[in-house]
Amino acid sequence: MPMVNYCKKCKAEVPAGERCSRCGNKLTKTGERLSIHYQRVPVSDWFCWNAMLRVVVPVITLVLGTVVLAEALTEGEAGVINALTHGFLDAALCAFGALLFVTLILLLLQGPEEVRCTLSTQGATLNDYVCKPSTLKLYARLTSPAAIQTQTAKDELEGGLFCAGHTELRWAEIRRAQYWPETFTILLYRPRYWEAMCIRCDPNSYDETVSFVKGKLLRNKHVKNRTK
């Protein structure tokens, strides 16, 4: 993953230097960036499961807590014991299992994708690209054909690739950065408790990427850096 520069005239990433290798246009310092591209299959990626479960688990917890609290307020201790011993926990576990099954189906339907992450002077941008996706695959990604057409038009990609997911973080917005050297992964949080972006690197580029991210977060007084 070499350092590249963005040529505004070509609207493309080109090798870093004083001038664009395609058109000869002068390149700016602000156009310098790290560019990360990799392939993944969501159903076999833990962080894709994590993104879905961060919604599923709180929903189950909220429902369970609401029912128990309601029983406690209306019937007292006896009501709580009655709720927990008469099938409610079994029903909650069944609901959780059903939601896990739905999550599995959604991730299976999404199919393979290409992830492109850009780390620039402004912040971090991550896009998920899929090749000629069906309407069903798009709904499995909780998006629609109209939405990805709009986003893809902004990126001006070729080869039948459509942008099915877009995340953008400015360095000043990040509240926590977590580094996993064992898996060559960087996690960025906004706010501190919510994982907003997962950046996967290859072994040869991990140290360079970590140094780049830490350098950009130096002026952010609110950020907390942590190595797993």
Describe the structure concisely.
The protein is α+β, with helices and mostly antiparallel strands.
Biggest sheet overview: 6 strands, antiparallel
Please, what is the average pLDDT? 84
Would you list the SSEs in sequence order as H and E? Answer: EEEHHHEEHHEEEEHE
Query: Using DSSP, what is the number of strands?
Result: 10
Beta-strand content: 25-35%
Enumerate the strands of the largest sheet in spatial order, edge to edge or round the barrel: 2-1-3-4-5-6
Structural class: alpha+beta
Beginning-to-end CA distance, first to last residue: 23 Å
Q: Count of DSSP helices? A: 6
Kindly provide the radius of gyration, computed on alpha-carbon positions and rounded to a whole number of angstroms.
Answer: 22 Å
General shape? elongated
Name the helicity range: 25-40%
Enumerate the spans where pLDDT stays under 50 for 5 or more consecutive residues.
none
Care to describe what's here?
By secondary structure, the chain is α+β, with helices and mostly antiparallel strands. It contains 6 helices and 10 strands. Strand 8 and strand 9 (195-200) form a beta hairpin. The chain starts with a strand and ends with a strand.
Helix/strand layout:
Layout: E1 3-7, E2 12-15, E3 32-40, H1 46-75, H2 77-85, H3 88-110, E4 113-119, E5 123-131, H4 135-140, H5 145-155, E6 161-170, E7 176-180, E8 185-189, E9 195-200, H6 206-216, E10 224-227
Parallel strand pairs: 7-10
Antiparallel strand pairs: 1-2, 1-3, 3-4, 4-5, 5-6, 7-8, 8-9
Write out key terms for the chains shown.
single chain; 228 residues; alpha+beta; 6-stranded antiparallel beta sheet; 4-stranded mixed beta sheet; 6 helices
